[in-house]
Specification:
By secondary structure, the protein is of the alpha/beta class. It is built from 8 helices and 7 strands. The chain has a 7-stranded parallel sheet with strand order 3-2-1-4-5-6-7, with helices on both faces.
């Protein structure tokens, strides 16, 4: 059963060109001051899950640095929602596969917004490949650098600025537990993200810094039409118990909880948001 029309975009993809447009909570998310006075740095914040998290965080009272690659129109639209919530939005384009850019993102956050309370490492790259031989060496390296190494460099730069009650959240995936063979490099990074977050939770616990990861299932974001064949895009999300792809807004409440003081004893967790597909 088709879930959405077959479609294709060149990577990294634009939310504004998707059919249907993902629901990132632009019209529906209602905040309750759970993050009042906090500052968040979110990577991949222009669209998809990152946009949904940015909108939710702003409506919960946080100022937000919106890190993104080069999707300026999508990022500016996200910023408009943050500002409409009465919060500050800092647009920060650049490539998180560059370690220096990761360090610069943290420094800019502190310089412009005064402090840092929440780091969400969400930017990701994937590409569908039908065989091992089809995966270019540079694509493997780029996937590792974007998805996994960025989390390391961002966290290392952020920790000196994080105090007790701060939160680091990595975006893992259902692929961390049940890897898709055609997304092998991506799946490997997502397992490593969950593992690294579990290690960080133990390393940073004595400082009062909590670290968790979120494991989405199939979620309708620009990554899908930009990295999958059109026929697979049409079927995307149809193989989970709930029978459909998730919308980014359906992930946002979990990211809010993990960033909030309400989750003061939640650390070292990998939270599944998968439409019913179990993660062990």
């Amino acid at each position: 059963m088709s879930q959405q029309p077959p479609q294709h975009q060149d990577p990294p993809g634009l939310q504004s060109e998707m059919d249907p447009r993902p629901d990132c909570g632009e019209e529906s998310y209602v905040g309750h001051d759970r993050l009042a006075g906090k500052v968040a740095l979110i990577t991949g914040a222009d669209s998809g899950i990152g946009r949904a998290v940015a909108i939710a965080y702003a409506r919960e009272g946080a100022d937000v640095v919106l890190s993104y690659l080069s999707e300026h129109s999508d990022a500016e639209e996200t910023a408009s929602y943050v500002e409409a919530a009465g919060r500050r939005a800092v647009l920060a384009p650049g490539d998180v596969s560059d370690p220096q850019h990761c360090r610069d993102l943290v420094a800019r956050t502190v310089d412009e917004l005064g402090h840092l309370d929440i780091l969400v490492s969400n930017a990701a790259y994937q590409m569908t490949r039908e065989s091992l031989e089809e995966i270019p060496d540079e694509e493997w390296d780029h996937t590792i650098a974007t998805n996994l190494s960025a989390l390391f460099h961002l966290s290392k730069a952020a920790v000196p600025h994080l105090g007790p009650g701060a939160s680091i959240i990595g975006s893992s995936s259902v692929n961390s537990d049940n890897p898709s063979p055609t997304l092998a490099p991506y799946a490997a990074t997502k397992a490593a993200i969950a593992n690294f977050c579990a290690s960080l939770a133990q390393l940073l616990g004595e400082r009062g810094i909590r670290v968790n990861s979120v494991a989405p299932g199939p979620v309708w974001t620009p990554l899908i039409p930009a990295t999958m064949p059109p026929e697979k895009v049409a079927e995307f999300g149809g193989n989970v118990p709930l029978g459909r792809a998730g919308q980014p807004v359906e992930l946002a409440p979990v990211y809010v909880l993990l960033a909030s003081d309400e989750a003061s004893y939640v650390s070292g967790a990998r939270v599944a948001v998968t439409g019913g597909r179990p993660i062990l």
